[in-house]
Write a structure and sequence with these properties.
It holds the Pfam family DUF979. This protein has one domain. Helices cover 70% and strands 0% of the residues. The chain is built from six helices and no strands. The two termini are 28 Å apart.
């Protein structure tokens, strides 16, 4: 059965991958703070029920563990706001295509994705709604 925590874990893992890509981006002059921002953001998504149970066991009571977890997440959010507020997050180049590569891809594909939706729209109108 699908649970919301699986989606949160997926988002956290994706954000951690973005953090690693940011740290490896030598073209970004603020790659350390950019990577730190995305890593903290991913950490917030990875925190879940297991963390609450771990903190409760460590602190000795459910209320104290939950309180410490909420304080920790609050501190992380404040640090993220400070990083972003002081201009620590910059857009990097994550293996993006050059203008020539984009143009060559556009010429090669032309309108194939749009034409596939218009052909299918006569049979099943809901299939191309997201395109």
């Amino acid at each position: 059965m699908f649970q919301q925590q699986y989606l949160m874990w997926l988002a956290g893992i994706i954000l951690l991958v973005v953090a690693v890509l940011s740290w490896r981006d030598s073209a970004n002059p603020r790659r350390f703070t950019t990577g730190l921002f995305w890593a903290l953001y991913g950490l917030v998504f990875l925190v879940g029920d297991w963390t609450t149970q771990l903190m409760s066991a460590w602190m000795g009571s459910d209320a104290a563990g939950t309180r410490m977890l909420h304080i920790g997440i609050g501190v992380i959010v404040v640090v993220m706001a400070l990083i972003a507020g002081f201009g620590g997050v910059r857009l990097g180049r994550y293996h993006q295509r050059s203008d020539e590569e984009k143009q060559a891809s556009a010429l090669r594909l032309r309108n194939k994705t749009v034409s596939a939706c218009t052909v299918d729209s006569g049979r099943d109108r809901g299939r191309c709604a997201g395109v």
